[in-house]
Design goal:
The structure is a homodimer. By secondary structure, chain A is α/β, with parallel strands linked by helices. The first copy, chain A, has 2 domains: 70 residues, Winged helix-like DNA-binding domain superfamily/Winged helix DNA-binding domain (Arc Repressor Mutant, subunit A), CATH 1.10.10.10; 113 residues, 3-Layer(aba) Sandwich (Rossmann fold). Chain A contains 8 helices and 10 strands. In chain A, α6 crosses α7. Chains A and B meet through α1, α2, α5, β10 and α8 of A and α1, α2, α5, β10 and α8 of B.
Chain lengths: 206, 206
């Protein structure tokens, strides 16, 4: 991998490429091209080639990209050769839906526990997970050396929960609460808020 | 608004600015600065000023931005001065969670119906919504002139459902199914797949 820092916007597209390649493989495809990937993804083929060129030369003149080979390379780049354990904090509608999301398997992640602070939820089942008391979070995160947390609590509790998670050792947060979390520099946050996506699209509607 | 096309990556950040300003207003703040917004958002103040400069001059020397005024301007830019009706297709875990998401109100959107094709779900309640038969979708979308749909069906049905929605008049899709939808040029798609976000973050973990 080159020492030069790859723009974050490029990194953000790599998982999309990986998802498309995986779908191609499921469809029995062995080779593809930047043109074909462009059609799948609605991203220009020049952009795809430029993005991938940050990480070396993958395509072969004439045959294009090996679907399996490029997936393997992208998994290496994205640190997905291991399986990452995740904790979910918040056992409400969103947390429960995410805990049962079938899309984690074979993509590098495994939900290993769900936490809540509501005595009525603690001990109940969310899919295959028994909801744990959020007070047990710090010990659990430390014991299992967990770095990733998904936060799905109400907006007004999200910062407090994030602070607790970070103090326990979490360094990457996928935040479903519709608030901007304030975190130390070593922690990364990505936000999932459907309204942000909807508002982005209404810009183009009239 | 200037005739020059604003880069989509800039448009994508405007809803984040709007969300931060709204939180500031709830906290009683009347004025803010690009520096303060930068601290809230983890985006550089230069980037924020540059993004906003695409749409004119908003700040005042000395007082900075009016929190209410800048929100109003962003709502105009993002076409949020009206309320957009949305349909949700898929009444499973994710669809149900999204239908009950409290974050739509006062942000420009109103869920007006939930559809599914499962006879066991049709007629049942998802929060305040009675699940409708997906066969009724085309008529409903046309009758209520709906442009936005959220698709929360299994991956293998998503393309079929998208085709039906688009044929009915939908032009913007928020897609929760973990597949790339193939759509005509006049249709916009945004994807919500937690794994894409998690894989983006693991790039930075080691």
């Amino acid at each position: 991998m080159p020492a030069k820092r790859v723009p974050d916007i490029v990194v953000a597209r790599l998982p999309l490429y990986l998802r498309a390649l995986s779908a191609m493989q499921n469809g029995g495809k062995e080779f593809t091209s930047s043109q074909e990937m462009a059609q799948w993804l609605g991203i220009s083929s020049a952009q795809i080639r430029k993005d991938l060129s940050h990480f070396g030369e993958f395509g072969k003149q004439g045959t294009g990209y090996s679907v399996a080979g490029l997936q393997e390379k992208l998994r290496q780049i994205l640190n997905l050769e291991r399986e990452w354990p995740i904790v979910i904090i918040g056992a409400g509608n969103i947390g429960s839906a995410v805990a049962n999301y079938p899309g984690f398997a074979h993509r590098g992640f495994r939900v290993c526990a769900v936490f809540d602070n509501d005595p009525k939820k603690i001990g109940s089942m969310v899919g295959i997970y028994e909801v744990c008391d959020v007070h047990q979070l710090p010990e659990f995160v430390r014991e299992h050396d967990i770095r990733l947390a998904m936060i799905a609590v109400p907006a007004e509790s999200a910062q407090e929960v994030a602070d607790l998670a970070i103090a326990s050792g979490i360094t990457a947060i996928l935040n479903y609460a519709p608030v901007n979390l304030i975190v130390p520099e070593h922690v990364r946050v990505e936000n999932i808020d459907p309204v942000l996506h909807l508002q982005h699209m209404t810009y183009y509607l009239s």
